[in-house]
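Researcher: Structure prediction, please.
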Amino acid sequence: MREHIDVGCAPYLEDCAQLGQADYSERARRECRAYIAQLRRTVGQEPPGASLAIRTNPHDFGDYLSVVCQYDPAVEAAVEYAFNCESHAPAEWDEAARAELNSSSRERS
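Model: Predicted structure follows.
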């Protein structure tokens, strides 16, 4: 059975899409994709038994998106990776993530 750790929707010092905003779903999905890419640059590619994914979470005000690290608790490298994602999550967007988010915004315009 797989377990997961929620690592958030964006680096913790950054503003992010807010549930209830008109463009929430599109913006949140873009931010989560950029965050997954940044986590891979920060922590490394997932080992066998672990995967980064976007998860939809129910809330009283609607569903919100976040990034999770799914892992097989029987695979030591997968467990270690999941906890590294949580403990080494970046505080701010890196240059590559900012470029990805900016290019996505320009493509929508």
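Model: The CA atoms of residues 5 and 83 lie 8 Å apart.
Researcher: Thanks, that helps.
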